[in-house]
């Protein structure tokens, strides 16, 4: 788990370098699917003095199995996402400001252009609001449940992010680092989408053909972007 | 008072590092409740050459009891807040641009999401406009009076900030450092709220249940965020 | 004139540090009233390799009396302002983006708050559009004429800036450094005013009493801001 | 070609320094008209470790004639622009956020002020949408075709940029460095134009006289801006 702790630490620090968080907001986790163990940021520890050994290891019931500190208060959302989305290896939650604005507005982010289509194969969904009961009794896990519900049968790897209504974005990926990369692009996409609606309130978004072209240029067996790995 | 002067200096410099002020705008103070003495930034001195010994110590009538320089021209607002809100230990005033925009618009900032709810238990109020008489005769103190009025019987620690109509934000906290932390989050919240209304002009804000859940997660006896102190 | 060249160089560099210009856009000048000589930035020279000796000295007819380089293409506007406004000692022109937006919108910036009132005693005016004849025959000087016209009998030191319609801001002050300081605050005021109208399309601005209180707190015989000079 | 590879590398890095790209987005190319060879950024290589030898040289059919890496996936658009616009020596594509917003909104950027007029002699056009057939069969080249179509008989050196609908900006110039300079100004112009419409939804833009005055001040035989070359 030492290597995963290093990766998760690095991914947490990358979130800061990319300007997605303020103070101790935000958290990144990673999972070892072999061990069914999750590594997550500790709660409320300043990023500038966080070390790999401060990260917390828990099982899939949220029990701490390694580490001195209390895990992020969002742990149960992360765990639910790992259970609901078996393909993912990393989860990130931020309060990045433009994605939060869409979440607060309760609007999904439509695919308005090719930057979006390069990463998200369709709108980034926004969850339903949680009920008062869910909020009182099982808030953090219910957040994960609402995200999974928003996907239904859609493949969560095709749109690796969601907006929690009135709260903010979660993003994910094959690794913690991937998850952060998606969160960074999500924020850029959210910003450009807001600007676009300011210029064109009836913006309709890209055609299915363009969405397909760009998404599958970067994803799937026929991807052509980047250098082929040798 | 030397330690408080150092704290207040540091809090003033933090306001600069966080990008909340331009030139010599803004000011932070702290109070020693034991001594009934206030430490405040001097008026119009550039932050980059401000030293702890440049800070001014006054009593609660605004009389300088230590220091060579003239205190911030906003001193009487700070003093009134210390009198009206006995729990607070630090006050900060900035012209941070998004909070100013809400103040200039004369609109309170509603609790549109959980970032807000983590820090402010309800809308951040905007004061009434001052009368011409108040402005002419007792402007600076009247600003503090209007802030206190905007709270009525509400607990000023539950919403540790206010917008002075046509002017800008004041924030406070248990310490000068806390006050600045709240001012930084206020600016982020103001920015995200403006973006949200641009996307959704009828945004309604979070439910009481969500407001409770987030606020009391970080505040009060049952708080669960961060590491328990040992 | 060596000292003035140093001051004008420094003021030009400050414009860059404050983020008001891109590439070689923008220019600052200063005047020696004793000699009736103007020092101005050369045209199209990158700021990062500009030296005091690159600055150009001209008389009030725009004739170069010292220096190897061609003066800023906006020279005649500067000269007209020095003639029309005898109290000023420095002029700056930028394409700072929010002030440009107001200029392009053809709207004066109303006094919406105390940041504005601390520096500008009333709206920042926008010029009329120039006629096709003026543009063809005497464009640069006519720009200065239109600015002076926009002031009529108002004191240009009370509102030390104007927006040239479809173009951008000019600001001025007692010294080149003062002029730049006013240009920096103008940009902040322009930004906050745009945000304010986004939140409140019918924003009315500050009362006369508040405008008086703030403006005369920093200006005139009864000013109380800052440290008294000894 | 070594010198051109160095120039194209430098132009790619300038795009990063100017904040126009995220991750490996964006690409700059240059052409040697003598050799009919194009130098372009490799696909998906991080800017921070790109070296001149990583750049790819292709002929005008897109065949790699030098280099180990796969060329930018946008290569065929660049090549089409070099064929359609014989005067140009460099092309740049970015996802700079304000230009993208206009592209996503499907709106050309009108000439609202003199910053625009200094660089673009009229509106920056937006292409028609590509057909589903074009997108499926010959997407990258068709993007170049649509850009050339948007110019018709207009001189592409007079408006050295276009917005691809639902995608983002392409810019060009006499050299790769020029192309990037134009892309940087385009982004500033796009940003100021968005602000302007927020303040004035019916903004009409500059007169023909002002457009002429500013454009020809910087371009053509009678240009007066900058230092004459000796």
From TrEMBL, chains A, B, C, D:
It comes from the Bacteria. One of its GO terms (molecular function) is L-ribulose-phosphate 4-epimerase activity. One of its GO terms (cellular component) is cytosol. Gene3D superfamilies: Class II aldolase/adducin N-terminal domain (3.40.225.10). It catalyses: L-ribulose 5-phosphate = D-xylulose 5-phosphate. One of its GO terms (biological process) is pentose catabolic process. Residues 6-194 form the Class II aldolase/adducin N-terminal domain. Its EC number is 5.1.3.4. Its cofactor is Zn(2+). Keywords: Carbohydrate metabolism, Isomerase, Metal-binding, Zinc. InterPro entries: Aldolase_class_II_sugar_metab, Aldolase_II/adducin_N, Aldolase_II/adducin_N_sf. It is an enzyme of class 5 (isomerase). PANTHER family: FUCULOSE PHOSPHATE ALDOLASE (PTHR22789), L-RIBULOSE-5-PHOSPHATE 4-EPIMERASE SGBE (PTHR22789:SF8). Belongs to the aldolase class II family. AraD/FucA subfamily. This is L-ribulose-5-phosphate 4-epimerase. It comes from Microvirga mediterraneensis.
């Amino acid at each position: 788990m030492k290597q995963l702790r290093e990766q998760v630490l690095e991914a947490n620090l990358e979130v800061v370098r990319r300007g997605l968080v303020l103070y101790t907001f935000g958290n990144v986790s990673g999972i070892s699917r072999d061990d069914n163990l999750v590594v997550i940021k500790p709660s409320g520890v300043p990023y500038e003095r966080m070390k790999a050994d401060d990260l917390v290891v828990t099982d899939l019931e949220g029990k701490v199995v390694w580490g001195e500190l209390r895990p992020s208060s969002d742990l149960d959302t992360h765990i639910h996402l790992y259970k609901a989305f078996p393909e993912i290896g990393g989860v990130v939650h931020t309060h990045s400001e433009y994605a939060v604005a869409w979440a607060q507005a309760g609007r999904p982010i439509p695919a308005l252009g090719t930057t979006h289509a390069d990463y998200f194969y369709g709108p980034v969904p926004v969850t339903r609001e949680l009920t008062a009961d869910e909020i009182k009794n099982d808030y953090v896990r219910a957040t994960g449940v609402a995200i999974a519900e928003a996907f239904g049968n859609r493949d969560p790897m095709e749109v690796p992010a969601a907006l929690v209504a009135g709260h903010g974005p979660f993003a994910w990926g094959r690794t913690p680092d991937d998850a952060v990369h998606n969160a960074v692009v999500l924020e850029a996409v959210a910003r450009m989408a807001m600007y676009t609606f300011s210029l064109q309130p009836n913006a309709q978004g890209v055609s299915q053909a363009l969405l397909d072209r760009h998404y599958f240029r970067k994803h799937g067996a026929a991807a052509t972007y980047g250098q082929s790995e040798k």
